[in-house]
Amino acid sequence: MRVFNRIVVILLLAGLFVLGVYAVVYSLNLFGYRLGDLPRALGLSGLYGGLQTFVGNAEDGSLSVLAVIILVSIAVVGLILLIAELKPPTPRLVRMHSGTYITRGTVADEVVEAAEQTPGVLGTSSRVKARRRPGAQVDLEARVRRGEDNSAIQSDLRRSVRERLAQRGVPVSKLNVRLREVDPRQARTRVQ
Amino acid sequence: MAGELLLARAAAQAALATEGVYSMGRGRYVEAATYEGSEKVSGVVVNPEEVEIHIVARYPLPKPIPEIARSIMERVAPQAGDRRTVVVVEDLEVTAT
Q: CB A93 to CB B65 under 8 A?
């Protein structure tokens, strides 16, 4: 949302700047421009006409389908933006317990190290998300050769990752383990 | 402000003297430091509410990370006064045993 907010504010300020320049030039009668000509220069008469038609149709309850769709879309987009803006940002650090935090990268390194010592695992990658409450959400993908006992490897992985993180004192709130069968020739480790 | 720098320095010394701390962290996303004039204490951020101490822990760990953090908090508490102490573990440094 921060990037989106910045883009919106930049566009808004750029628009205000252009309007300000117009207002100064026309108000001070510079370069032969007069304030009375401003509505015509900006094409406001067409806008007024369109607005009048729209308000008239709205009062009569005879809006076109397209106008209704546009209005509903604006309302939905506004609601989505409002919710996104009110939602507190995701924390960057994993909360361990009161007043102690650890970086996500450190947790991810520990997860990978624990996972790669598990028999049958040829390679791993992990992603760690911090949560507002203590504990990390760990998404682990392990590469295994075809025909292995996937359920046994999965439970071994879960146990070794949980044990290792528990030894370090890092609470795990959620651990997702996904196995991907690969050709050992394409894996970093061919035999485990 | 001078008090904040002194507190940051004391907190950094206390953290480095704690078993299991390899070095002070530098901050992952923004620099973690307390500044005053031309002086800077890296790894400690002091503000009116809290003292944030960034560390790199020594690996293998002599004790679990929460216990290392608790030791740091106990050492820093006398200087921190009413401020809350927060410990951020930025990395683990593997050292020869």
A: no
